[in-house]
Amino acid sequence: MNTSIKRQKETFLNPGNGIFLEETYNSWLRDPQSVEKSWDNYFRSNNFSGQKPLDIDATIRAYQARGHLIADIDPLGIQNPEVAKLQGTPDPAPAVVVRRHLESVTEADFEKKYTLPSSLTVIGGTEKSLSLREILTRLNKIYCGHLGLEYTYIPDFEVLDWLRHKFEVPGAWELSGDHRKYIWQNVMRAVTFESFLAKKYGAEKRFGLEGCESFVPAIVQCFESSAEHGVEAAVIGMAHRGRLNTLVNICSKPMHQLFVQFNPIPMEGLGSGDVKYHLGNHSERLLERSGKKIRVAVLGNPSHLEAVSPLVVGRVRAEQMVHQDFEGKKSMAVLVHGDAAFAGQGICYETMHLTNLPDYTTGGVIHAVINNQIGFTTDPRYSRSSTHCTDVARVVNAPIFHVHADDPDLVAYCSKVAAEYRATYHNDVVLDIVGYRRNGHNEMDEPMLTQPLMYKRIKSHPNVLKIYSDKLLKEGIIHEDFIKKETNEYLEHCELEFKKAQTISAMQMSDWHDVPWSEFFANQNPMKKIPPTGISTADIKKIVTAFSTSPEDIEPHAQVFRVLERREKLIDQERFDWAMGEALAIASLLKEGCHVRLSGQDVERGTFSHRIHIIHDQSRDKTWKNILHDIFPNQALYTVTNSPLSEFGVLGFELGYSAYDHNTLTLWEAQFGDFANNCQVVIDSLLSSGQSKWGRQVGLVLLLPHGMEGQGPEHSSARLERFLQLCDDSTQVSCEEDLDAPRDESPDCVMTRQLFEVNWIVCNITTPANLVHVLRRQILMPFRKPLIIMTPKSLLRHPDAQSSFTEITTGTSLKPIYEDQSPAIIASPEAVKKIIICSGKVYYDLVAARRERKLDELIAIVRIEQICPFPYHLLAKEISRFPIAKITWVQEEHQNQGAYYYVRDRIALALGLPIEEIRYCGRAASAAPATGSKMIHQEELLAFIDTAMAIE
User: Which stretches make up the Transketolase-like pyrimidine-binding domain (predicted)?
Assistant: First the structure.
């Protein structure tokens, strides 16, 4: 056979090319002149002039590619009931699978033997030829039985062959008797635990696993097989369905700790806690079959179902980086989905697309679907457009195994293959366990209201333990005494743990932490003063010099030279701008051994081309230089990476990353601040309340470009008001404590205590010096809090928005407020008639207007840099300088937006004034964040500046 024909044959026999090649062959059958001459030569030279040989090959390919469409994977028999009889028979599959391939087959053809090309299939094992009857019988068992396989879209021939060998070789699915006993034990525990909970807590919501209990042996098997391939730690992300069973029977959480959650008792530890089916855990499990140990964590998760998925992936990535597990061999992510959520939630798609990106990959994720065939009360026929709930996984060429949940042997085998695939090819893999939901959405719901026919079947359907026990009894694998002994021992253990829970008088928040609670967190002291955040003069000069020097082996763009020249001029004046301040903070932390990770859309250069941490060569592809690398010997790793066009997924990833290692400064930057709208679930349900609900302290930093520069409603506001509304500082308590603090408690100690007690920190920074301090403080604080920074746009290059080196030298710290230090104010503060308090970019507009109108002696301008926690004591001290002045709050945002309603009450409390005396100046209330008209924008700006400068 010549090279061209050989190549065509290899291409033709590839299962992934099915439809086009079948059509080519069928066209040739009808008219040999209708195809290219090379195809005509190929078919003639290989004796394909008759129909039968090719149809056999095409039939096998059809089963491989489309058998999953009719597989008997539904325990209730609702899906494809007409094809349940196919398994174990030679009957041809329906036309949706085989189409025209067998339409002319006669009875005699069933006994005829056909050669099986090794390049096409391994279905024959050691046999080189099989009868059509045997071929169809084997194909029906493999592809139309209790397993629906999707994999032929994978472009890698090696992977295709690997998967075919796992499922097509005769006897491949067989498990030993001991292995099946182990599976039965896990099934028994899963079923018995649910029935025990139902007995003890029948009136409580539990979101039980009933109907899909095979999930437990599935994940246990994933752990066993993964541990054999070197995995030492696994992180699970899942919604509420089956979480309690998972915590106990997969993660080995002591039952009494879980049972305590059902009791009406107080909670000890920081935070308000969460409902039991949202909580996490961290433990070490001894794997019974392999004897290996594996660390298992379940992350806390709200009812936003899939929101936890990117957090898990980020958390695993962080662990891999700490342990230099760059291939993902020691730590892995397991994401557990509901069928409706996997198909319906966009975050699944966002997370899936991170899987092979260099700075986000974890070496493959194992996805397990608890497929109840219903979403809340919605039939899947009305909740998705795709055939399967798992179709999103095809975008990363993940193999998908749809498995009948009442066949625990097959579930376990597919779990074993899934773990082996992940370990071998470091890609995602999906295990879709198709079962049902025995109760309603929760145990209080009545499912017959919306799904009467389904639930009539469920009521008469035996549970998986009954089905599996009968099967193993019949085969002699187990006996009645074994069943009785194992079940009674497990029930006795449940009862003992239940009784122990009744003796416990308070729930410990620490029992539900989803990360190891290290000494750093355990020994926190809110009275411990935060050290100064300044940098030595020598380090300042070394960093800014490196940051303004072009790499020798890179050919930069001309614009980069201009940026570097501008930096050099600033250095000569011993001053720095925003970009240099950011670099100073990052590089100084790198020197101190702190890993820094900056992620977001276009962060390598910065949205406004101001950052330029990565300089790309203009003549060579994939050639660049990170100019913050190698400034100091043995400095820590700096990762700066452009993210995919995703906010929800990427911010979730970075939150998970920051939750693992407290010595990493993790920053996420929105391209524009209002793009954070797309990840509001992460902000609301996971970041702002993470410590309160789950005891999770993180130091994640959000950089949100904010400011109204006439760019329209979608490029103006980072919604400062939303972040302030989520702050949990109590105005009355905070004010009284801070203003009446002990005489020996310094302002720095007051601020430390405030930082410790608040849920997160919100800043509207206007100087690069304060940026240096606030970023360095994130690591130097003896605790961790999320940090929200409203970052500038026009101020990135504003000549007044610069700082001197002296503002960040050794011994200096963040300034939560900037007092008015203008000469006229210092000379005669008693003459000041009006005090403007503001925050953010508007300060520079106000100073310019005051200077222009020669009002320097009459108007003092105070800007607040750290809004939450509020600097009561510092503001009170500053305002006390001006005995006769009236107070006005000025902001550029609309009245119902920005900081006004947050700061108004706090300013009044700090100064002991009625709220009515805190006047407002700014734009009127509006539904939109900003106007789209530059003319209107300018008119609004001039109007409120005029009002701000007015002296009564």
Answer: 576-798
d(CA 455, CA 451): 6
Regarding beta strands 281-286 and 293-298, do their DSSP bridges make them parallel or antiparallel, or are they unpaired? Answer: antiparallel
Q: Residue 772 and residue 578: Cα distance in Å, rounded?
A: 9
Pick from 546, 885, 870: which is nearest to 731 by CA?
Answer: 870
pLDDT digits (tens, 9 = 90+) for 542-600: 999 999 999 988 898 999 999 999 999 999 999 999 999 999 999 999 999 999 999 99
- In this model, does residue 16 exceed pLDDT 50? no
By the 8 A CB rule, do 944 and 890 touch?
Answer: yes
How far is residue 404 CA from its own chain's centroid?
29
Residues 329/391, Cβ–Cβ less than 8 Å = no
* Cβ neighbour number for residue 813 with a 10 Å cutoff: 19
DSSP H/E element including 657? helix 648-660
Percent of the chain at pLDDT exceeding 70: 93
- Both tokens of residue 338? 């509901």
Lookup: tokens for 732: 């009355």
Q: Judging by beta carbons within 10 Å of its beta carbon (0-12, 13-18, 19+), is residue 500 exposed, middle or buried?
A: middle
Query: What's the distance, CA 412 to chain centroid?
Result: 27
Distance from C-alpha of 390 to C-alpha of 400, rounded to nearest angstrom: 8
Strand partners, 148: 402
What would the pLDDT profile of 480-536 be if each residue is shown by its tens digit? Answer: 999 999 999 999 999 999 999 999 888 787 777 787 767 777 777 777 789 999 999
Tokens 């079923």, residue?
Answer: 191
Q: Residue ranges of the alpha helices (H) in 406-557?
A: 408-425, 452-460, 464-475, 480-502, 519-522, 537-547
- Regarding beta strands 147-150 and 400-404, do their DSSP bridges make them parallel or antiparallel, or are they unpaired? antiparallel
Report the alpha-carbon distance of residue 582 to residue 580 in Å, rounded: 5
Structure tokens at 646: 């995703």
- The H-or-E segment that residue 336 falls in is strand 331-338
**Using an 8 Å Cβ cutoff, are 914 and 921 in contact?**
no
Please count the helices (runs of H) and the strands (runs of E) in the chain.
34, 28
Nearest to 644 by CA among 282, 355, 221, 313: 355
- Structure-block tokens of residue 65: 């590619």
pLDDT at 43: 67
286 CB contacts (<8 Å, ≥6 apart)?
252, 292, 293
Burial tier of 811 (Cβ tally within 10 Å: 0-12, 13-18, 19+) = exposed
| Distance in angstroms (rounded) separating the CA atoms of residues 624 and 149 | 43
Q: Give the pair of three-digit tokens for residue 221.
A: 């098997």
40: left (phi over 0), alpha (psi -120 to 50) or beta: alpha
Over residues 303-334, the pLDDT tens digits come to: 888 999 999 999 999 999 999 999 999 999 99
Residue 153 burial by Cβ neighbours in a 10 Å radius (0-12, 13-18, 19+): middle
Give the per-residue pLDDT at 841.
95
Residues 6+ apart with CB under 8 A from 645: 601
Report the relative pairing of strands 331-338 and 365-371 from DSSP bridges. Answer: parallel
What is the pairing mode between strands 834-838 and 859-864? parallel
- With tokens 């009933």, the residue in question is 210
DSSP state of 127: -
Write out the two tokens for 325.
Answer: 């597990």
Please give the DSSP secondary-structure letter assigned to residue 886: E
Which residue stretches of 730-828 are H helix? Answer: 731-739, 747-757, 768-780, 823-827
Other Cβ atoms within 10 Å of 887 Cβ, number: 18
The DSSP result for 154-221, as a single string, is ---HHHHHHHHHHHHSTTTT---HHHHHHHHHHHHHHHHHHHHHHHH-TTS-----TT-TTHHHHHHH
Interhelix angle 537-547/578-591, rounded to 10 degrees, is 120
**907/899 Cα distance (integer angstroms):** 12
